[in-house]
Amino acid sequence: SSSNHYTTSYSTTQSGIYTFSSSPRAILNCSKYREPIAEQYGNIMYDRRVVRGNTYAQYLLPLTPQPDPSELRRQQEARRRAIERRRTKEQLRLRTPEPVEGRKHVDVQTDLYLLELSDKIDESSVECQTDAFLDRPTTPLFIPVKSGKDVATQIEEGELFDFDVEVRPMLEVLVGKTVEQALLEVMEEEELAILRAQQRAFEELRSAELVEVQRLEEQERRRREEKERRIKQQREALQREKESVEKIAAWAFAKQYLSELLPRVYGMLRDKGYFYDPVERDVETEFLPWVIKEVNNTLGKRYVARTILNTLIRDIAEQRLEAYRQEEQK
């Protein structure tokens, strides 16, 4: 708890600015030391720190104290009532009618004195340093005051018991127990020797059986490998035989197919000119083009001469026709 209480007050100046001020006030009759925490005893079945259920799962205690469920329900109920009350006030509050078309509502001040509105409120803080709490010293241990009188009793030698008489049963028990323990140890050693002998015999028999099993497994492995090798060889032989049969069949089919294909191919190539006579090819490629060229040149010369002759004949005929017309006009 704090040693000082602060009083807070808000005041309004003429300019409409709110100021904050607080003045410290000392509290009397305040303890100087911290109050010790009283030990609380109760039923641990209702203690939150006692883990229940699965102890293997990690149970983490919250760092902050959890509120009471009844208090939470009370706070929720109060919050719900406040919301309903606020909603009811908003519904019952008289509202301004909706503005007509072309106008809108604007918030304005209607007070007698205008106040300057500002988002930032001027405030000032005042601090007061208090003395730190001192730990309370430990309460000394309570030692009750000694009361009564001290009394002593003297016991002489031989008054309590006779050693020779009282020690006899103890010695009988110790000796009997020792002899019984020795007999048990001897019987245990003999039993252990018999167990070791049986274990050695069992180990020898097991080793012999293990060697025989390994020999049989090795023999079976060799037989399996030999069988797989024979099967692989047989498969390879069958594969080679199949390939040979396929090759022979392919050779026979190719021979039969080519026996009819070769003459037809040769004839087709011969028709297309791949197989030719060199003399005939020379005549076709060298002589005949030269002859055709010379013939074309000769024919061209004849065509030119004929054209010139036709032109001369036409000119002469036109001249004579013109002269004949002139004679007629005279």
TrEMBL record:
Biased composition range(s): Basic and acidic residues? 70-87
Q: Does the keyword Phosphoprotein apply?
A: yes
- One CC-aspect GO term: cilium
Subcellular location per UniProt equals: Cytoplasm, Cytoskeleton, Flagellum axoneme
Q: Does the record's keyword annotation contain NADP?
A: no
Residues in coiled coil: 208-248
* Major localisation: cytoplasm
What the entry lists under InterPro entries is as follows:
Radial_spoke_3
Pfam families tied to this protein:
Radial_spoke_3
Which residue ranges are recorded for the region named Disordered?
63-87
Keywords in alphabetical order, please: Cell projection, Cilium, Coiled coil, Cytoplasm, Cytoskeleton, Flagellum, Phosphoprotein
Q: Give the UniProt family note.
A: Belongs to the flagellar radial spoke RSP3 family.
What is the protein's name according to its record? Radial spoke head 3
